[in-house]
Amino acid sequence: DIQMTQSPSSLSASIGDRVNITCRASQSISNYLNWYQQRPGKAPKLLIHAASNLQSGVPSRFSGSGSGTDFTLTISSLQLEDFATYYCQKTYTTPLTFGGGTKVEIK
Amino acid sequence: EEQVLESGGGLVQPGGSLRLSCTASGFTFRNYAMSWVRQAPGKGLEWVSGIFGSGGSTFYADSMKGRFTVSRDNSKNTLYLQMNSLRAEDSAVYYCAKHTHQIVYYGMDVWGQGTTVTVSS
Predict the structure, then answer these.
(1) pLDDT digits over A51-81, tens only?
(2) What's the sign of the alpha-carbon dihedral A91, B9, A101, A11?
(3) Is B66 exposed, middle or buried (0-12, 13-18, 19+ CB in 10 A)?
(4) Chain B residues near residue A95 by CB distance under 8 angstroms
């Protein structure tokens, strides 16, 4: 099975900071990569699909890039509501594996 | 508004069985693949199982194969997860999620609030 590795597992940042979260697949998954945000006690929310496509209704400060094995989620200017845990997920083949998550905390 | 609502969680003894349901509304259910995703307390997301919109193909994580069965009734807009031979490590919040296409190879854009399964004696 293809493994998904996210880094870092956690980070501390300030309001207005630019934040990058990376996700690496153990083999090529083309652009079959999605990003989700999960706030405490809430269900996940789809942010980015197919590596770089912003889901409808998601603020434009979120962006995704990459293809093949290396992917990045960027938050251009961190807002208070962005403090959450972020997960990548590959949908190239089953199992539809998630990365381990990146918790974004307030510095 | 597109919505999914899970039910059927609860406390079950090790080795027992439970059937989860997920009722969909606000979209044409048969046109979309569906998945179950779980999250153990304090842990990350784990994809459990998925099914095509037609119901013709089903998929499972390795640790669930042979114990869990996913199905759907498109006439009732309902997704199911039959869980047998439950173990303590199956304790989690189970989410139902809608994929953006008929097949599972795309993201999941509608999620329920989850139903809690606790496996304990």
Answers:
(1) 999 999 999 999 999 999 999 999 999 999 9
(2) positive
(3) exposed
(4) 47, 59-62
